[in-house]
Amino acid sequence: MAAAAAAAVGGPQPPQPELPAPGLALDKAATAAHLKAALSRPDNRAGAEELQALLERVLSAERPLAAAADGEEAAAAGGGGGPGAAEEEALEWCKCLLAGGGGYDEFCAAVRAYDPAALCGLVWTANFVAYRCRTCGISPCMSLCAECFHQGDHTGHDFNMFRSQAGGACDCGDSNVMRESGFCKRHQIKSSSNIPCVPKDLLMMSEFVLPRFIFCLIQYLREGYNEPAADVPSEKDLNKVLQLLEPQISFLEDLTKMGGAMRSVLTQVLTNQQNYKDLTSGLGENACAKKSHEKYLIALKSSGLTYPEDKLVYGLQEPSAGTSTLAVQGFAGATGTLGQLDSSDEEDQDGSQGLGKRKRVKLSSSTKDQSIMDVLKHKSFLEELLFWTIKYEFPQKMVTFLLNMLPDQEYKVAFTKTFVQHYAFIMKTLKKSHESDTMSNRIVHISVQLFSNEELARQVTEECQLLDIMVTVLLYMMESCLIKSELQDEENSLHVVVNCGEALLKNNTYWPLVSDFINILSHQSVAKRFLEDHGLLVTWMNFVSFFQGMNLNKRELNEHVEFESQTYYAAFAAELEACAQPMWGLLSHCKVRETQEYTRNVVRYCLEALQDWFDAINFVDEPAPNQVTFHLPLHRYYAMFLSKAVKCQELDLDSVLPDQEMLMKLMIHPLQIQASLAEIHSNMWVRNGLQIKGQAMTYVQSHFCNSMIDPDIYLLQVCASRLDPDYFISSVFERFKVVDLLTMASQHQNTVLDAEHERSMLEGALTFLVILLSLRLHLGMSDDEILRAEMVAQLCMNDRTHSSLIHHIPENPNPKSGIIPGSYSFESVLSAVADFKAPVFEPGGSMQQGMYTPKAEVWDQEFDPVMVILRTVYRRDVQSAMDRYTAFLKQSGKFPGNPWPPYKKRTPLHPSYKGLMRLLHCKTLHIVLFTLLYKILMDHQNLSEHVLCMVLYLIELGLENSAEEESDEEASVCGPERCHDSWFPGSNLVSNMRHFINYVRVRVPETAPEVKRDSPASTSSDSLSSLHSSRRPKVLQRENSGTAQVFSLVAERRKKFQEIINRSSSEANQVVRPKTSNKWSAPGSAPQLTTAILEIKESILSLLIKLHHKLSGKQNSYYPPWLDDIEILIQPEIPKYNHGDGITAVERILLKAALQSRMNKRIIEEICRKVTPPVPPKKITAAEKKTLDKEERRQKARERQQKLLAEFASRQKSFMETAMDVDSPENDIPMEIATAEPQVSEAVYDCVICGQSGPSSEDRPTGLVVLLQASSVLGQCRDNIEPKKLPITEEEQIYPWDTCAAVHDVRLSLLQRYFKDSSCLLAVSIGWEGGVYVQTCGHTLHIDCHKSYMESLRNDQVLQGFSVDKGEFTCPLCRQFANSVLPCYPGSNVESNLWQRPSNKSIQDLIKEVEELQGRPGAFPVSISSETNLSKEMESVMKDIKNTTQKKYRDYSKTPGSPDNDFLFMYSVARTNLELELIHRGGNLCSGGASTAGKRSCLNQLFHVLALHMRLYSIDSEYNPWRKLTQLVEEMNSQQGNEEQQPEVPILYHDVTSLLLIQILMMPQPLRKDHFTCIVKVLFTLLYTQALVALSVKCNEEDRLAWKHTGALKKNACDAEKSYEVLLSFVISELSKGKLYHEEGTQECAMVSPIAWSPESMEKYLQDFCLPFLRITSLLQHHLFGEDLPSCQEEEEFSVLSSCLGLLPTFYQTEHPFISASCLDWPVPAFDIISQWCFEINSFTERHAEQGKALLIQESRWKLPHLLQLPENYNTIFQYYHRKTCSVCTKVPKDPAVCLVCGTFVCLKGLCCKQQSYCECVLHSQNCGAGTGIFLLINASVIIIIRGHRFCLWGSVYLDAHGEEDRDLRRGKPLYICKERYKVLEQQWISHTFDHINKRWGPHYNGL
């Protein structure tokens, strides 16, 4: 087949299966040049034919696909080494031909020179980092590439960086999308003028070659496409084809990048219809072309584009149908059948269609033109290319190529039209696709570039019917997943809704199409066309009605649902995206009067659709019980357009409202949702599972609320303002199922509600009424007021960060609306209502972000509980707001008790909604309020404080909004309207408040106490008001004429409804369906009810006054304030009434009532006078006593509790301070390990597990809880002041050779080269890297208790954050992390006091004693031979210490496993701990005192353990350095004898601090103080000599000679041994005998310091040289003997420490300047011992002078360790590192990270850099920090800590302008370094407290 395919090419020429002759092939360039010349001639026909022939040959030779399809891979024609080779060959030919004989690269450069680079147009794919600047953008979708962004000026703009989701393109230079001020430097130039014209011959070849090339590509695409079999998805085949085509598409992509000149050629080629026709018609005898054309037709056909009944997708019509309306008729069911065309008329609207069919969808088709008809006929390469791009599901390369062409204007228009023409086809492919997510992203990637441009969108709308196509396509798409609606009337419903369980909705497959629709509606010109086109509006409403009532919930009454469906996510997303967002888009264009017409159109069709919906679901007046849908998009469209009409367009509301009957229907479903919310919160839907709660939350959640609950409440407000108030109120109570509760009787039966739900439902109903009456969101508030109210509500619930405020405040969903969070109004409102709390650090290590908290005056005046209730997703937030309010009132002294929610003044109502206030003045509400007040007063069950609070709120609202003042004080009581059986005379609350109601007839169950037949009691005046007497309401047998009847809300509502129906509808024939449900039984039908008459004799006012007494718990508590202060009536705004509890509320209401009418004032005074005189205490009734006792008891209990809590808090605080705080103040209760009172003979320890106290003994040792960790912090000290910076350019790099660790390493290896190994290992310390640091929390435990504790942890199955197998645990008392126990050495304190007494022995005697003691092996109170528990523990802890660090940090000996190694390791552990403590104290001891570390220091115990083990290795007395320090060797030459073995290390090369530790640890413990001082004195002489030697090496020849001379003169003075000049001169003269000073060539001069040495500078040098030793020694003395460190100034540190150590003679005078040499106390004559030491140096420098000198100059002054300095702005780090390649794997890491200790760049989690199963970060943490790593994750801006086998996220040190972290750079705002946070991080690193402070650790399994 392949051969045939290749042979059949070439049309009329004889077939040529071979490639062109080899000669020709070799010389492509020559051929190309020849052809170019031929074509340049005026008559170029011959050349053209020749070129065509060549192209036929070349391009058809690369025909591997057909072959590949048959599996004959290698049989590609011409045998060009398989398909690949042939293709490459063809591409080479094309490149040569394009370049016309020249080099291809030069050709590219030449074309680029003609690029008019006005647009950037860089196309990127997903995950690319781009920028968006809202200040510069015209379209919300505008985006810039990083380069253009950084080269433009966006300072102070509102921009952010983002990771592209779907891909995009850079808009720089496009003034349709962004303002020119934001263009970058490259694209600011309007360059068309100065670019020269493209020479004709440059691109001439391209014009000939490219059509063939593109045609060839299309043929491939045709051949490669096989219709997938029905069951097998064929992605594999498609991908194969695409892989083969990769080079060709890349070649095209490269062409587009050559700039404007080449793009315009490509545009010509792609859009030229003639070319396309000639090449693809498939005519002629070319079999291959024919075959390819057939495949193309098959593909078209299989895409369903040729069947006539399919045409309607494009909104087409047969020409014969004339201009009749096209109706698409489908069926309900999920079949979504495509109907046939018919020209039905409008009259067809009655329900005569068959069951299950849907109402017809009318498409306006008068504007259709023929161009959409020819949809199947592709006319150009571009169209067919797009067709195949869609067929192949948008391959990335093709998309990028098509988008790269967009900067060409002509192409842009052509492409947009083509895209629109294929829109329906895109939708079908998308629906079938398996990879719909990827495909959606790619579609949007394209469409957003096309539709964001208003000019283009308008053009396509006009020329291609874009709107018709979009709406139709959406409608068609949704039709495929419709089901019958079960709302209301299940059997007969004709309504269909989308099925939320379908993949289409579940996976948001519709998203790209809806997103395009929203995008084009944001353009004014397009939206206008939409709003003017009635046909489109009808279709759209039809589309919206598919969502009306979807995802219906039915309440489960019996058992819990088996399977909780999660479809509600899909439903809410669909309503928001497909209905609400287009609605907001349309609303944004209806802002001014001129747009009234649009609103009228929408409202009209919306009402029609609603009417259709009510008919379809068969709705009359009662909603079906126990079902609710949260989705009413039609209601919401209607509501929002009404609101806009009144607010912005000054339309008369009544002109767009329907009749009363329709309003009654409209209010039912939104009201049903409000009632269901209350039911869900009352747990009545609990059997439906958690998802129902999820729905209730989503409905009010910030992203949804202004498209869901707000329109619903607004619609209810509109209905309430126009309907009869009594009807409305009774409907509310009926919906909330609490009608039966509203009875005066103390018992009742509720037929629809369980008793346990009654209270919360009643609360729900009242709260809803309060919200309905006080919310003003759409009733007159301006946008800024709304924003302010929303903000205050959010801030009152909790302090919030800036981003969470933006997240929680419902933004206007349409981006063009102007109120974007982040806009100026947002910031200005925020600064008006809130104070910024800067980010803080708590000592526990938790880091707060910058928060906003409400200002005091906001709490005082603006806190609005109603708004808070409306906006809370979780009920606990309401409580949180109230708690914060309470705290504010207490703090500011405004109110001490538990306040009630404050009553807030409202914005005035817009005149159109004045009717809403009639609700407050209707008898029904007044009866309810009266009943509830009475019930609360009588303590009936199921009433709460919340109910009372809401009742009072409603009364207050009524008083605030009462109608104009009563004209006549004596309101006409006997007016005509005495309905309601004389409950209340009128409907005004002010007058009704004083109306007394005497008797009420109630229906009660026979068991009720009311039924007991008492004899009528005398109704004396006092019994009326003495409410607290426990009398029962009297039941009177005789029917009293003034009795108020039983009041039935339901009957009331029915009556009203009937009236309205009869009055309103002319269709009197419409009979109301008889109610079948017997849910509300008629009063009296239940036999067990009986009628009783209650004597009440109260009015609302009297009830309020009694309530005041009840609340305050005192009789006569209310006294009218105006009797004392008449002013109060004139100036009623009194701050004392603003905040308070129920008592305050009652007083406030009574005051308002008195203000409103004189009658009320009089009656209040009367009632107050009538109240019984104070009763003597013994008359307290039992009930009241009970309540009083209860109250008292409660009060006492509360006080007790407070006391306990306070005590507990203070305990906790003191404990926290001692246990946790790293830098706690000095005055804590010290948790001393051993109490140091002299009278206690032994140290006593408390075990925190068993709680016993006692000494540590041999058999039952006690141990300290310790954490051992390897540390390289010391090794990070550097010797230069200038801190290292994190590299942010290629030039900056950090080299580690100036760190302390590196210097020490070099020194040790140098010593090991020339000296005996065992001696080298005693001359230095290790542990600068990987040293073991021991720290404790200070708690002790018995070691056996600890073992059982560990056992219990092991058996505990709970996953802890630590690994018990590695010995890790948390301290049982303070929970601090630990991993070992350090045994406490048994010993008495008295002993140590004896040891400390100074003895008067001479230094010589002491030296001898020291030597003897060191010689005694293991002279311990515990002999090692007898294995005691203690010694076992000491051994095991030593093992732990060794295992803490890696082997490489322990073994430095040349002979592995030598004991010298262990010896070196042990004393280095002591050194590490001392050095680290010094660093924690800030590098010096000036502060003195026992530091916090001292309190929890375990050095004493550690020394015992180390000493015990050191004594096992006795040093051969020959080698003991002590000898060399304190004795003169007889003959100097003894060492020279044996040349062959390496010499010992000269004593002057020894590290003195190491010697100190060796000497001390070799002594038996506990050590005597005078021995310690002796050792220090001896070592100080050596140290001083080293200082002199180093000084002599540092200075130059002349200085040396001068000093040698001056010193020699004073040599015989009496204190010569204590004069540094004499000693220095002696050192110089001794060392001059060797070669040390000789090697001073020119290169050395650089090292020598140029300072002239003065005596002061020399003294300072000597002191600085000795200070580190003195500091360590003082610390050691402090720990061993418990002496406090004196504090001092920095300049006195040397003298203070030396006198503290006993180096200074006590009689030393401090007058003249201090001289360091005066501390010397030579054990043997100074000059002799010095010359002995110098002799060793000289004998070494004989051979190695240079090394000899290097070893003498020690850098003793290390600066404190620091982390790398970070740049101010995070962007500098991000831009450099996020594209940087890894040095190991040379790829750009997916998760790049950088080490903050050394600056190494690593791949986090990268498998590429894995070594022996360790990922790179873990490996680096071991090498760089001995197991501790601190990494900055570049893409997340967070810091991650690795500690051993665990890791934790530490947080970020970069915060935005509002003090917030931006983890994962989601918000992309600019971030700036927070220096305090970075300090905290550094502090935790240096003090090794990561484990204690950070709580969230997890294992990393070496995978980081």
Low-confidence segments, given as residue ranges, are 1-26, 61-83, 306-374, 814-822, 965-981, 1012-1042, 1065-1087, 1173-1181, 1220-1240, 1388-1395, 1418-1425, 1532-1539, ...
Tell me the distance between the termini: 54 Å
Strand portion: 5-15%
Q: Which assembly state applies to the chains in this document?
A: single chain
Q: For the report, how would you describe the main beta sheet?
A: 6 strands, antiparallel
Report strand order across the widest sheet: 25-24-26-27-28-31
Name the shape in a single word.
flat
Gyration radius, rounded: 47 Å
Helix content: 40-55%
Mean pLDDT over all positions: 78
Number of strands: 31
Tally of helical segments:
73
Estimated structural class? alpha+beta
